[in-house]
Amino acid sequence: MGQKVHPKGLRLGITFNWSSRWFFSDKKVFRTSINEDINIRMKLLKAYSYASVTQVDIERAINKITVVVYSVKPGMIIGRGGKGLEEVKRIIVSQLKSFQGKKKGKEIKIDLKIEPVKKPYLNAYYVAQTIAEKLVRNFPHRGVVHNAMDRVKEAGGRGIKIQLGGRIAGAEISRREKYFMGTIPTSTIREDVDFSKYPALTKSGYIGVKVWIHR
């Protein structure tokens, strides 16, 4: 029986870099830092979903944290005169404080960067999010999927695979549907294959969206 691995996890250190880049020898500090990173990432992805945030990278040094937010619409995060950046920093600070509790540690300097996603339709997270949002608005699922595949091909993608799972189109019995275009060499480590998944909460229930893109 074939064993499946995460396409991005398989390529870490080869075609993909880690989302959190730091190391602590102290196990307690390591554990706290991991939880902080997870919460910061989840909060920012949820709070700025309207700006199509696709990735949040975090680097740490002594009393300093660097957060790089990748967005399809960076202007919506930055705002007029950079006012939106203060709100992003406030979210990061609140997550850091929630794990520190009442303990007063040294003040941590926050370095925030907002980077644009140059080719959004070659980003699996953005494509999965776009499909999910249209499914929530009751767009015909086949039309949504084929439109996304065409956009990926136009952007220069060498292949794409999309999988939907759940009560598709309000069906009584849940099912899975798979769509392919081009090549998806999931086992070839040197190939750049991006992967992501996104849930779509429809009136009938959740529909899972998985996207593989061969760039």
From TrEMBL:
Record bears the keyword RNA-binding: yes
Organism expressing this protein natively: Candidatus Roizmanbacteria bacterium RIFCSPHIGHO2_12_FULL_41_11
Gene: rpsC
One Gene Ontology cellular component: cytosolic small ribosomal subunit
Entry-linked Pfam families: KH_2, Ribosomal_S3_C
CDD domains linked: KH-II_30S_S3
Known function: Binds the lower part of the 30S subunit head. Binds mRNA in the 70S ribosome, positioning it for translation.
Keywords of this entry: Ribonucleoprotein, Ribosomal protein, RNA-binding, rRNA-binding
Gene3D superfamilies assigned to the protein according to its UniProt record, in alphabetical order: 3.30.300.20, Ribosomal protein S3, C-terminal domain
Entry's family note: Belongs to the universal ribosomal protein uS3 family.
UniProt KW RNA-binding keyword: yes
Sequence ranges assigned to domain KH type-2 in this UniProt record: 40-118
GO biological process: translation
Subunit structure as annotated in this protein's UniProt entry: Part of the 30S ribosomal subunit. Forms a tight complex with proteins S10 and S14.
Protein name: Small ribosomal subunit protein uS3
MF terms in GO: mRNA binding; rRNA binding; structural constituent of ribosome
